[in-house]
Design a protein that fits this description.
heterodimer, A: 428 residues, Cytochrome Bc1 Complex, Chain A, domain 1, seven-stranded mixed sheet, five-stranded mixed sheet, 16 helices, 15 strands, B: 425 residues, 2 domains, six-stranded mixed sheet
Chain lengths: 428, 425
């Protein structure tokens, strides 16, 4: 067992790798809560692969990872594990992202009773034509629910502008048409190809004694290592963006804007970059910045723009999001500020202040067991250890942040996605 | 219990929740005042005006520089309906001094700022700064208009206002656009000065705090000294302000908007004065539509595949339950038929002991979580404070355990469907 300690946040992370290749990590916390998440490195972007031992490429319908997430709860005896876990008194759930699928529960009592059910359902899929069919209507409604979320359309449109062929363009839940093609055979095939111990991690956070928890889980693992690999295939993506601008009308009261910058450098210090980008957001248009004050006083924005570096093994981009009643001039002013800062360099006081803010945000992430555990999972599939953020933090210099600004915030790699109110609404 | 309360002055209380479970301190100042058509918009404008600057830090930039220096302390304000009251919330969350790089006393600095923002804004002859007014009125209008952006909560708000009209609980918490235009600097300043001297004020502080020190600090604080003792002017949340009427015809409303999915909301009235009413209703609601084992989830979603989201929520201050689901527009009749069947089934007692046990287990485990989440715990105590109840989580859990099937059936038979609201295209 490996133990990593972080003196800044006073936490320890216990790491163990089982013989079958499964990784398990535990971050004990003083709380009555217990949180467990079991995740596989398989998400919406994984749509082409050579199944273990096969030479023919398998291409699966969009949305299948998410469909499987819904169906894994079904049991052979006709019961549904979500119902059972709920009746034990634990809060069970699951989610699918672009690069992983996760199953979880959280509780204050009955962790052990629930663990049996949990370990059993994740390792034993049971799909029938009937139970697969039943889910289609439910997932269609989930897709339609997202269709009514302006921010989801804003994001997907930005991805279409940034990427031509990258699988990030695939909607996580798929579409009504693609999910119509999902069958029990296809679900079993992806389960067998990706729900494999070496492709998975279990993370626990909360009221745990690491040794005991490791042993308990180990005794319930039935999954075997598979000598044959699953080989994934991703499309080659051009370094260029597809289009600079996209807008869509929806029934909203005010335009929302997402500015994206494509980052083609997928190797290297992602953690440092991530921290530097948060610092830059604070300096450029954070609430204490001159630009924020100017845009606010002009009535152009009324909340702070958010900034986020989103990355995985196959893509990376910066996203800046805000609401404005004057899209063009606000986008222009932000772009201008970015380019000015490249010339003038960063003021030292601004840098120090932004750094303190970002540090505080990193510490706050360690309050809630759910944030901690799901954060560790997401980082793990990006080949990052979550504590690296604290290790790297002290090494971030003003010069490094300026370098990130010059290299990543490049006009030729910039896209703008807008959701604006329907024309007819404006006439009213 | 880890919570202590003391009176700073009549009508002004400080509540300390001492806990070492978090890396953060949370300070939350609440002003409680009755919901009224005449003042609902003024209330909503106040946080917009106050966050612009204090005498010490006269603009937003300076306030935010100070917050950023405090390791990104976050200041936020908001407004919520709680029964027939409006609560104005001002809060600051920051990392605890223990995790600061130079062990500064972050909590005191933040409390100073919080109290300055609420009680010491830039004022001239009792007038708030007029320069901020035009812009903040525009900002409030934007927030009011934003209610259409989230279609789910819009549908719920529409159903509530159909049931209550433009009075009290039917009011929109951010107020009304037509009222915003009329507000002058005199109006808002006069109202602000009245509000802080006449309302119930509660300060909640949660974290690994030294209670004695914080108490001393608050007693010595000049802003607190300036406040007068007051007779709290608010509506106790356990007093029901209107008696519910028997509905002859269900009010069926549909509205068109550019949506891809229909949003269905069904508003129910509870017409009962049985003992332990609120706790029985909580169990009823869990059986009906709260959680994966509920009738809504099992029948509307799992069996009929009509919805992804299918649930119900209980508003205890108003004795209403709101059933909510997102469905394909053509399935309107079908969904209503299935939901009505569920309501009938509970009335007839057609649910098992297991159903009632599942509901209790579900509620109890959510209650146990309350003390493990900093903001949830503060919100729980705010609710208790405004309803003048002092029930610990343990007592609450015991009460839930005593609910019987007969009580649930009795309650079910007092429930009437009042309004069906449907947002479609």
């Amino acid at each position: 067992m490996q133990i990593i300690e972080n003196s800044k946040i006073k936490e320890k992370l216990y790491i163990e790798k089982f013989d079958n290749g499964l990784t398990i990590m535990i971050l004990p916390k003083k709380t009555r809560k217990k949180y467990i998440v079991w995740s596989t490195n398989f998400g919406s972007i994984d749509n082409k692969f050579y199944a273990p031992g096969e030479k023919v490429l398998t291409v699966v319908p969009d949305g299948i990872a998410h469909y499987l997430e819904h169906k894994l709860f079904e049991q052979e005896n006709g019961e549904n594990s979500l119902d059972i876990l709920t009746s034990i008194g634990v809060d069970a759930n699951a989610y699918t992202t672009n690069d992983h699928t996760a199953y979880l529960y959280e509780c204050t009592d009955n962790f052990d009773e629930a663990l049996d059910e949990f370990m059993n359902y994740v390792q034993n899929p049971y799909f029938t034509d009937e139970n697969v069919e039943k889910e289609r209507g439910i997932i269609e409604q989930e897709i339609m629910m997202y269709d009514d979320y302006p921010e989801w359309a804003l994001y997907m449109n930005a991805m279409k502008c940034l990427y031509k062929d990258n699988e990030i363009n695939i909607d996580i839940a798929g579409t009504k048409e693609t999910i119509a093609k999902i069958t029990k055979e296809k679900l079993y095939k992806i389960y067998d190809s990706f729900y494999r111990p070496e492709n998975m991690i279990i993370v626990l956070s909360g009221d745990f004694v690491p040794d005991e928890a490791f042993d308990k889980i180990k005794s319930k693992i039935t999954m075997k290592a598979n000598p044959n690999e699953t080989k994934r295939l991703y499309n080659k993506e051009s370094e260029e963006i597809v289009q600079e601008f996209i807008e869509k009308e929806m029934n909203v009261s005010i335009p929302t804007v997402l500015i994206g910058y494509k980052d083609n450098n997928l190797k290297g210090d992602k953690v440092k970059k991530d921290i530097a980008i948060d610092i830059l957001g604070c300096i450029l248009f954070g609430k204490s910045s001159k630009l924020y004050e100017k845009l606010y006083e002009a009535g152009k924005i009324f909340t702070e723009p958010t900034i986020n570096y989103e990355f995985s093994k196959t893509f990376a981009h910066i996203l800046i999001q805000f609401q404005t009643n004057d899209v063009k001039s606000t986008v222009d002013e932000i772009t201008l500020e970015i380019n000015n800062l490249k010339k003038t360099g960063i003021n030292f006081d601004d840098f120090e202040r932004a750094k303190r803010r970002v540090y505080g945000d990193l510490v706050k992430d360690y309050n809630e067991v759910s944030n901690i555990a799901t954060g560790i999972v997401a980082d793990y599939f990006k080949d990052i250890n979550s504590f690296d953020y604290f290790e790297e933090f002290s090494s971030i210099s003003k010069e490094y942040v300026e370098k990130v600004l010059r290299e990543l915030f490049v006009d030729s790699k910039k896209v703008v996605s807008v959701i604006k109110p329907n024309e007819k609404e404006n006439e009213e | 219990m880890n919570k202590t309360t003391f009176d700073l002055k009549q009508g002004i209380k400080a509540h300390f929740i001492k806990t070492d479970l978090y890396k953060t301190d949370l300070s939350c100042l609440i002003i409680t005042t009755p919901l009224k058509r005449e003042t609902v918009t003024l209330n909503a404008l106040i946080p917009f005006m106050l966050r612009r600057g204090t005498k010490k830090l006269p603009n937003q930039g300076l306030i935010n520089k100070e917050l950023e220096n405090m390791y990104g302390a976050t200041f936020n304000c908001g407004i919520d309906k709680m029964g027939d009251n409006v609560i104005l919330k001002f809060y600051i969350e920051s990392i605890s001094s223990e995790y600061a790089l130079n062990s500064e006393n972050i909590l005191e600095m933040n409390l100073n700022n919080l109290l300055d923002i609420v009680f010491d804004p830039i004022q001239n002859d009792e007038l708030l700064n007029e320069q901020f007014l035009t812009l903040e009125k525009e900002n409030l209008k934007r927030v009011i208009n934003r209610k259409i952006d989230d279609k789910d909560s819009y549908a719920l708000d529409r159903c509530i206002s159909a049931m209550y009209g433009d009075e009290k609980f039917g009011l929109y918490k951010y107020g009304y656009e037509e009222d915003v235009d009329k507000i002058t600097i005199k109006d808002i300043s006069g109202y602000y000065n009245w509000l802080i001297q006449n309302s119930k004020i509660d300060i909640f502080i949660s974290g690994n705090i030294k209670t004695d020190e914080v108490e001393e600090f608050l007693k010595k604080n000049n802003n607190i000294k300036k406040l007068r003792p007051r007779i709290e002017n608010y509506i106790l949340n356990n007093e029901f302000t209107e008696s519910k009427q028997i509905v002859e015809n269900i009010n069926e409303i549909s509205e068109k908007m550019d949506v891809s999915q229909g949003k269905l909301v069904m508003g129910l009235d509870i017409l009962s004065d049985m003992e332990n009413l609120q706790v029985v209703a909580l169990v009823y609601n869990a059986i009906l539509g709260d959680g994966a084992n509920s009738m809504m989830f099992q029948n509307v979603r799992e069996k009929a595949s009509l919805a992804y989201s299918a649930r119900s929520t209980f508003v205890k201050q108003k004795l209403n339950i709101f059933i909510r689901c997102g469905i394909q527009i053509e399935n309107y009749e079908k969904a209503i038929k299935i939901i009505k069947e569920q309501l009938e089934n509970i009335k007839k007692g057609e649910f098992s002991d297991e159903d009632i046990q599942n509901a209790k287990t579900y509620l109890i485990s959510s209650l146990k979580n309350v003390a493990e989440e900093q903001d949830t715990e503060v919100i729980y105590y705010i609710g208790q404070e405004i309803s003048k109840t002092n029930m610990s989580l343990e007592e609450y859990i015991k009460k839930i355990e005593t609910v019987t099937k007969e009580q649930v059936v009795e309650l079910a038979n007092s429930i009437q469907l009042n309004t069906i609201y449907f947002l479609k295209n």
